[in-house]
Amino acid sequence: MFPGIKFDVKREPEDMGAARDLAKNDRYQFQWWALSLIRAKPLGGQEGSKVGKKGSDKGIDGIMNFVDDAVGKPKRVIVQVKSGHVRSGDIRDLIGTVKRENAAIGVFITLEEPSRDMIKEALTAGYYHSPGWGQDYPSIQILTIADLLDKSKRVKVDMPPQHGTFKQAQKVKSDDEAIQAELFEVDE
């Protein structure tokens, strides 16, 4: 169709083979794609972007924010993505990053299955208690690419909602409802 022009067609991975291929060929694109699976903003990226900054990230690949108290100050979820060999030390590093950055929750996305030691290490971090929702959320969460790609599992970050309020607003009555209420009160 276009002689002499070469195209490099890229698609988002839909299975583990394609995810591994992306991780092998371009680890930054893999990282940004993995962040998009949980709707996290890449570090240094724009809202809705699938790219961020390259280079030293001090243990932070992506960020998610939520508000869960009356003060209205956003709280952060820090996300790390690993495409290679993972170990329990990676989880200890994430726990340290969450503490250093004063974040509420840390999420570790991995291409490989986590070890039993990694899961134990994550459990030692305890829970974040949301004052607005009155609920506890694991402070450190491990999500695998396989689980995120499996639509039947519906895996997501366990955290307070990113948007919305935790206090329900009072319902406003329409003019018809107000008139009916007045008529009903008069008839009593």
Fold and architecture overview:
The protein has 188 residues and is α/β, with parallel strands linked by helices. The protein has a single domain, classed as Trna Endonuclease, Chain: A, domain 1 (3-Layer(aba) Sandwich), CATH 3.40.1350.10. It is 32% helix and 18% strand. The protein has 6 helices and 7 strands, in the order ααβββαβαβββαα. The strands form 2 sheets. A 5-stranded mixed beta sheet has the order 1-2-3-4-7, with helices on both faces. A two-stranded antiparallel ribbon has the order 5-6. α3 runs parallel beside α4. The protein starts with 15 loop residues before the first helix and ends with a helix.
What is the tally of beta strands?
Answer: 7
SS strand fraction: 15-25%
CATH class: Alpha Beta
Radius of gyration: 22 Å
Instruction: Supply the CATH architecture.
Output: 3-Layer(aba) Sandwich
Number of domains: 1
Order of helices and strands: HHEEEHEHEEEHH
Short description:
With 188 residues, the chain is α/β, with parallel strands linked by helices.
Keywords:
single chain, 188 residues, alpha/beta, Trna Endonuclease, Chain: A, domain 1, 5-stranded mixed sheet, two-stranded antiparallel sheet, 6 helices, 7 strands, 32% helix
